[in-house]
TrEMBL record, chains A, B:
<dbReference type="InterPro" id="IPR006094">
    <property type="entry name" value="Oxid_FAD_bind_N"/>
</dbReference>
<dbReference type="Pfam" id="PF01565">
    <property type="entry name" value="FAD_binding_4"/>
</dbReference>
<dbReference type="GO" id="GO:0006108">
    <property type="term" value="P:malate metabolic process"/>
</dbReference>
<keyword id="KW-0862">Zinc</keyword>
<keyword id="KW-0809">Transit peptide</keyword>
<dbReference type="InterPro" id="IPR016167">
    <property type="entry name" value="FAD-bd_PCMH_sub1"/>
</dbReference>
<feature type="domain" description="FAD-binding PCMH-type">
    <location>
        <begin position="116"/>
        <end position="295"/>
    </location>
</feature>
<dbReference type="InterPro" id="IPR016171">
    <property type="entry name" value="Vanillyl_alc_oxidase_C-sub2"/>
</dbReference>
<dbReference type="InterPro" id="IPR016166">
    <property type="entry name" value="FAD-bd_PCMH"/>
</dbReference>
<keyword id="KW-0560">Oxidoreductase</keyword>
<dbReference type="GO" id="GO:0071949">
    <property type="term" value="F:FAD binding"/>
</dbReference>
<keyword id="KW-0496">Mitochondrion</keyword>
<comment type="function">
    <text>Catalyzes the oxidation of D-2-hydroxyglutarate (D-2-HG) to alpha-ketoglutarate. Also catalyzes the oxidation of other D-2-hydroxyacids, such as D-malate (D-MAL) and D-lactate (D-LAC). Exhibits high activities towards D-2-HG and D-MAL but a very weak activity towards D-LAC.</text>
</comment>
<keyword id="KW-0274">FAD</keyword>
<dbReference type="InterPro" id="IPR004113">
    <property type="entry name" value="FAD-bd_oxidored_4_C"/>
</dbReference>
<dbReference type="InterPro" id="IPR016164">
    <property type="entry name" value="FAD-linked_Oxase-like_C"/>
</dbReference>
<dbReference type="InterPro" id="IPR036318">
    <property type="entry name" value="FAD-bd_PCMH-like_sf"/>
</dbReference>
Amino acid sequence: MIRTSVRASSRVSSRLLVGKSVTVPVTQGIANLFVSGVANNKKLSSFHSGTRFYSDKPQPKLTVENYPNVKRLDSFKKLGKQDLDYFQTVLSQQEILEANENEDLAFYNEDWMRKYRGQSKLVLRPKTTEQVSKILKYCNDQNLAVVPQGGNTGLVGGSVPVFDEIVLSLTQLNKIREFDDVSGILKCDAGVILEAADMYLAERGYIFPMDLGAKGSCHVGGIVATNAGGLRLLRYGSLHGTVLGLEVVLPNGEIVNSMNALRKDNTGYDLKQLFIGSEGTIGVVTGVSILCPTRPNAFNVSFLGVESYEAVQKVFVQAKKELGEILSAFEFMDLKSQNLTKVHLADMDHPLSDDHPFYILIETSGSKKDHDDAKLEAFLENAMEEGLVLDGVVAQDETELKNLWQWREMIPESSQAGGGVYKYDVSLPLKDLYSLVDAANAKLEESGLSSIEDESKPVISAVGYGHVGDGNLHLNVAVRRYTKEVEKCLEPFVYEFVSSKNGSISAEHGLGFQKKNYIGYSKSDQEIKMIKQLKNLYDPNSILNPYKYV
Amino acid sequence: MIRTSVRASSRVSSRLLVGKSVTVPVTQGIANLFVSGVANNKKLSSFHSGTRFYSDKPQPKLTVENYPNVKRLDSFKKLGKQDLDYFQTVLSQQEILEANENEDLAFYNEDWMRKYRGQSKLVLRPKTTEQVSKILKYCNDQNLAVVPQGGNTGLVGGSVPVFDEIVLSLTQLNKIREFDDVSGILKCDAGVILEAADMYLAERGYIFPMDLGAKGSCHVGGIVATNAGGLRLLRYGSLHGTVLGLEVVLPNGEIVNSMNALRKDNTGYDLKQLFIGSEGTIGVVTGVSILCPTRPNAFNVSFLGVESYEAVQKVFVQAKKELGEILSAFEFMDLKSQNLTKVHLADMDHPLSDDHPFYILIETSGSKKDHDDAKLEAFLENAMEEGLVLDGVVAQDETELKNLWQWREMIPESSQAGGGVYKYDVSLPLKDLYSLVDAANAKLEESGLSSIEDESKPVISAVGYGHVGDGNLHLNVAVRRYTKEVEKCLEPFVYEFVSSKNGSISAEHGLGFQKKNYIGYSKSDQEIKMIKQLKNLYDPNSILNPYKYV
């Protein structure tokens, strides 16, 4: 599979030791703290692209076997010869993939996590928006169910069929349409790979206003359809602010085009917003117009140790104030997550020699390196003098910068290295962000399921880390083996806890198939009613991405 | 009227001379260019708040007299005694204003431009969301038309009644609900005045992520309902990105509450987006949750002369690159606009002694003054060495900073000082931004309607200025008197021109009553159909803000 090679690049080699970083014990003061940065952010970006690891898992069971309660809707027609005949009038033979004895269409039927597997017999890969329109109109008229699919890197089973839905792959709709190098507005097809878009922009001095681990595979249309958050949200805000226009094909084949939209346009409801984060349930995004900022040319990364989650919050407020406009990432990690990562990255030295209850990774990016260096240095000096930061290092070159990021980015892989991992991606009010990890550990211990040493226990530990700037916590429950008891202990406990704090049960991954039934933990009955109204308005036959979302 | 006093504060007094600014002729090089800034941005903000001037106009004719083709909808019931009885069960006597011989409710019936005047006999001023809900449910059940009204500072007649609609004023729903000084999330009632919200935030080291001239009167709910753009869009992006949650009452009285939303929440369609910019046609915003950035503590302003609109664009690209994260405003003005302003501000010296075809005002705001100064100085040095900038000054203190802004902010008033002004607020692709001004002047001259000297001609000149960063042009046609010929010459010419360049006929002012019939110049039939679908979905009886929008 193509994606294995793309996604297998994340292994940390021994070349990447944090050898040269300057560790500054608090007793030593900040005098030796040497601040340095990295100008080549192209390489930084590609570094970010390799943290997935799931594809080594064995082929999953069919989704229908795992979820026998989910039934195929009788209203959907089964694919017939005459349907294929019609699609052949719209698409060339190369644009139609049929399942046969040699081809099970596994790439299109299986999700990236290898948790879900559908049974589609037909993949359509149109090259134009008009082809998408004709396909959807026909499917709507004929009651044929359709799953729109981008790079298929989603984490909630939203991009693969459950039964025999037709896969509508946007892979071949992949042209950059236009770039305005004065305004920074990029217009491109939905199927353009995020990394390709960002590299195109890099050559012109601009940057794509979001970034995420799967950038080498995921599509620009896919990130819009799922409202992906990713690594630059703290700096550039959400796609609801940066996407200026969309081209969307509705289930009935009608094309809604706002690709000419400018930065300001107050004439009518902002229709495109409905499709950002709609996960392919009310329309298929075929084109994206997005505002891209000027590419920063200086990056700094610092890795700090602090004594409590309260200190994490205080350092965050201080960083917003002193680093201001150049702060581009503020990530926190707990000691447990770093202990797991130390085991996994056994041939690397941890950036900080002593243990600390919490760690912080701060990234700055700006237009002038010596200014950024001075701001970071002053900020760290103050934070250490105030006793907020106990220890810290600052990357001196690009290799060190990458290495520091590794201690954040390798947590997911490290969490599952002991056997497996239950992953939760939630949002919580900042003050409550870490309380979920404590609560989960307490619950697992009370239940007698958890022990770091005792290998007879299924759970090793629950660890927490995430994007403080976005209020986004990743709770990973590292396990030695998956058991029904652990699942029962965690669910719906985690969702109930998040709901009790007015959090979101899906900060950035979406609902898809996995969380369809849990939307009530994040949305009121009134909101769910309105969501269903809209689904019914645009897709009355429910042909788009059925069995998911709502 | 209260608003006269608030809005009359913009007159420039002779105290505000740009005496101390250092003008640097290009021959003199950049060595003397002294860059300075201002730390007290509270005063800066209040400076921004006083550029309105319309309230001196006489009371307008009734809208129904000016627009006899617009007919009252028969489906709406006329207000009766039993309706008042009901409202008295919901609101106290102080919250109900009835028209009588001493009170024509002019403040609520007339718009700020004094172009429109309705005939409402009843103003309801609820203090709670529950009261809003009861009022709307009753009005919906009884087919009573309602106009939601915030600060009533809109420019398109969207916030005042056309006939006898009940005015639902949000003025008394005006509490700050909550502020989280770690995340920067502010939650407040819709009726909080923008300036009050910003001052509340200033005391806590934060800033409201948008700003506009009417900040002393307009409501937070109003700017959300109209998706106001304003002065900080270049830096902080649109409200679609910064608003995290809303509390909205639907026409049937149902309350949709997403006030607990966090920065990331991917569970369902982003319903709140529909109400941002809906101009009170599908729901009444009663609460707003918004993400506020840390307040910058250093401001710089520079005023530059360049030789062409092409040079304006080049300087913009250069500013984005070199000023990067601290660029907070990039405004341009043509020579004609400055000539009118020189007449109007006759007791002030223009910042630049020689005439230039175009002028640019650049504002930076950042977290560290000496860094900002150095960046601005280096940027100006390069721009002058390359011959892009012919002349320029940089404010040395807060007074000068305000004075430089005056030459941009007083253009509207100066444009109408000769008798009157036709104002157009449009968005165009950046490369075409100024072409509309040239085209309008050419058309007016061809038609023999325009002359700067000849006072027998109705038109003095068309002038252009605006927010380059947002692609937002203000076209002001300064006239000696309003005539049908001028109107016929300008409309639909301006809208057709904008449409031919794929621009927007309303960049930030909205549709309201004024532009309702012109939406087709900016939106496709498909989009208009979808907008009407949504209006019908949420407001099937059309009780909310009728005769406007769509």
